[in-house]
Amino acid sequence: MRWLTLYARSRHAPASLAVVLISALAVWALARTGDGKPWSGWLPVLVLVAGAAAVSVGLGGQDPALERTAAIRWMPRRVAHVLLGGVLIGAVLLAVQTMDGQQTSPALVLRNSAGLMGLVAVGAACWGRQYAWTLPCVWLAFSMVVPPSTDVVTQVLTWMLLPSGTAVGTWTALVLAAAGTAAHAAVGVGGGGVRR
Amino acid sequence: MNPRIARIELRRSAAPWTGAVVLAAALVFLCLIPGPWSTGSALWTAQWTSMAMWTRHMLVFLWPLAVGLGALQGLRDRRSKMTELLAGTPRPAWHRAAVQAGTTAFTLVSAFALLLLVGAVLVLAGDASYFHLGWLPISLVGALGLGAGAVFGMGAARAMPSILTPPALAVAALMVTNFLRHHRSSDAEVPLALVPNPVALLAPTVAEVHETLLTLSAPVHLGQTVWLLGMAATGVALLAAAGPRARLLALTPLVVGGVFALLLFPAGPRDTYVVDREAAAQVCDGPVCVTTVRQARLDGMAGPAKEALRLLSGALGERAPVGVRETTALRALSATPERPRDAVLVDFDDGALAGARGERLTRFLIGQGIVPLCSPRSRTESGTWEDAAAQSIAAAWVLGEQPRPLGGTMISAKGQAETSGPVWKRFSALPRAEQRERIDAAHTAALSCKGDALTELNGGALR
Prior knowledge:
The structure holds 2 protein chains of 2 kinds.
Chain A (H helix, E strand, L loop, with lengths): L1 H9 L2 H21 L9 H14 L7 H5 L5 H27 L5 H22 L6 H12 L6 H6 L9 H21 L9
Chain B lengths: L2 H10 L2 H18 L15 H10 L1 H16 L1 H4 L3 H5 L5 H33 L10 H24 L5 H15 L2 E2 L8 E2 L3 H4 L13 E3 L1 H23 L3 H7 L1 H13 L8 E3 L1 H4 L1 E4 L2 E4 L6 H19 L6 E4 L16 E4 L4 H4 L3 H13 L14 H15 L13 H16 L3 H17 L4 H5 L6
Parallel strand pairs in B: 6-7, 7-8
Antiparallel strand pairs in B: 1-2, 3-4, 5-6
Helix pairs in contact in B: 1-7, 2-4, 2-7, 3-7, 3-8, 4-8, 4-9, 7-8, 7-11, 8-11, 11-13, 15-17, 17-18, 18-19
């Protein structure tokens, strides 16, 4: 238990959790002040991206080099961290939406949380935790500008915004989730030159 | 600013990376990803204004990125655990703030300038014939927006030093640019925003380009410049501020700039996106006119168009149009295009016209002259099967050949052939005089948009 508490603290868990909740509630409030169909389109995805970005700062600790020397098997812990993060952001979105009496399809939430956590894990493994948020943010921004199309490349680019059940979207999310989790489990956090 | 320190800062900080990431993201987007910026008459390198507007539009994702990466830069001292050391140096805080903010803003502005340079080279290599400097303010405000966003991000991260600040700022910026975006809609001729127009203009992005004649009006540039300068000033002040009171005071330029900008911004979207009069001026070769923007098309068009007019006057008699001219009227998405009696009106957004040259152009103009479109055809509007079929039948009748489907539209050639085939079979079996009557009826129906041209060609009932 003591280990868990210390781990959560070193991973900014309370602050991340607060940001996840606040961003979901903020978007919820904004959507309510808007017009008729509040949760349509990209708002649920935005909540998930904000959540993934907030959780991503906890993918590494203060000093990765020091942590690496600990006689602990990091791999399963890192995998569990990524999975739990995904569960958390999905659950917060669904909970906030239930308050409003409407719901994005759980399949879509599952797909996007998995894919987005995979993305931040890739980012953390490549550049370190402080840069991990850039990937999902840029990808979401990209996909909001690309016009929807049935073209496969476009579908891969806009996987976050595709309706649930679209094969290309599901596969992209799966690949991202698997690759991200694996990369993070194997490498931890990367970022040679910029790690401080 | 000490040039030596600035050089070291440029070499040792992440500022060059910030610029490189922004430039790469924009170039990948514009050059590799297919979209409205890469096809049609409003592609990003078609005209100077289109180039400036598309690169400005890219701020939808570049600006949040700049704000977030700026915030990462602002956290640098804290990450290096040297804030106390720096607080102990006798050098004034604003010296360091100026160097840090200056280099980041400099690299971002340079990245945007390089993007514009690539665009400019491509525009020069293309067939843009309308040279003007009216696009420059659009891009200058865009560059200022990137720099101001990054500096503001740095200041905000210094005021709220948490590892969560950069992602939170970036997501918030993403939300702002997307909520405040102008979109083309079926409600108005110019792009509309979901929020009141002056508020929407606080975001440094612009709507996507669907009409090359549109540009931004001067009050918009002025207001955005004031607002962004205020934002940058607040960023620098926050970077140098020591205590809570100084931080609060640092917000003054942001608020003042915002208020002034809101007062300067035009109230409605019609005063925001305005027609560039010089660009819309008509250039004519006899009866054939195009806008100055598309002057390059005039030479290739004049011959086929005169031929089409000659054939049309033979076919329609005194009711035939006497000129060909490019439309300059703005219209809402899916709204009925104008259909004058005396001229064949062409719109280069129509894919069937955009790729047509020589004989194919003549055929298109004859079809358009007899059956002017009631539902528009463009990159985003498909037009109707019936109009496409009726146009190909009308052209075939005038030219005395079998109907050929129009190319470059969303309606497939096979679909057009299936629609026009049976009608042509019955129509071509009729005596010449009756054919002529039906063509007249189709022309009348298309001009008034009452009834349907293909139905008239088929003798009153389709199928």
